[in-house]
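Protein modeling request. Please complete all fields; requests missing the sequence field cannot be processed.
Requester role: graduate student
Desired output: 3D structure, token encoding
Chains: 1
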Amino acid sequence: MRAVTTPTADPLMPHRSPTVRAVAALSLTQLIGWGATFWLPAVTGPAMADELGMSLPMIMAGPTVMLVVMAMVSWPLSAVFERHGARPVMVLGSPLGAAGLLVIGLADGPVTYALAWVILGLAGASMLTTPAQIAVTEIAGEKAREALGVLILAGGLTSTIMWPLTGLLQAQWGWRTTTLLYAALILLVCTPLHWATLARRPREKFAAKTTAEAVPIDRSRFTLLAMSFAANGFVTWGFALTIIVLFEAGGLDHASALAAAAFIGIAQWAGRMADFLGGRRWSSFVTGLAASALFPLSFIVLLLSSSFASAMIFATLYGVAGGIIAVTRATLPLQIFPAGAYARASARLAVPLNLSFAAAPPIFAAIMTSAGPHAALWLAFAISIFAFCALLGLLLLHRGTDHASQQSKIES
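Delivered output (412 residues):
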């Protein structure tokens, strides 16, 4: 008589893994969330400006308002993430994002338009990058770095997918209907996915945590990490909206400038892929320092030559560096802070990071307009050197502290 066996979970069936389900769901919700909010005016901005009677710069200031609000509320949210986990915050943040898009879709002028971006800033702090990364670490455990790499790799496709989709929807139904459709998408797709796939953290598990400071965060390490991330973020986002203008000011025709700028996105995705594939062999310090060194090297290339070949070399170095740094921002805190402090540290790091993101584009645009492209490149070069030195200082501090700790254990 043949024995009857009870089916068991097949370790070769990755789709059954809670981590895989969560990462897949978050990859989709992050793509929708960023594409429907921050990146929306890149496509719909001119039509919005015409219908609302606003200038295009005022329309483009909406995402800046969003980033500033995200920075303002990220620090207070850090204790909430640590005590209650990312799931309840993201479940509430999704309807808030839908509400912000609803206000944009019904806006009749500057006041309601600005109000909408304030709401989207609150939603972004609750459901976009930082909460998603916290959610991944909660459910992935020791596999958090690999899971974060997949999430960030998928996020690199946001503009590639969402910009054409937004353009198609706007051509068919206009920007208002497109915005309202995105509001429905966030409400009906993102909210259920956040509810169903993220880790449930019972309150009893955190009963022992009476304060948000239960696990200390080393102030020196936090400061050096924040300075490095904010400096590199200032550089990458500073050129995000002005790189084509920079290439053209250097002598390239529009087609060549557009081609070189477009290649940055491909290089960024390649950088994220390289970090993902090598993550098991290299520490986040190694990849982060390598990427930080590529930034000043890329600016030197453009300072020495303004040819199309130089622009492509710059795009490759700059894009790969930006892609790796995007992963490092998520994974390096895992390496230097205690596991119990990751949520709080990540949320607090979002404050200087979002402020640098918000300030960089107008500052670089103003410098390029008033002092020329070389002045902007020299500024970027100096800031990238500062970012590298801050990260190097963090590495030396981290190794020195670990060595002292090990010596203390040996002596005791």
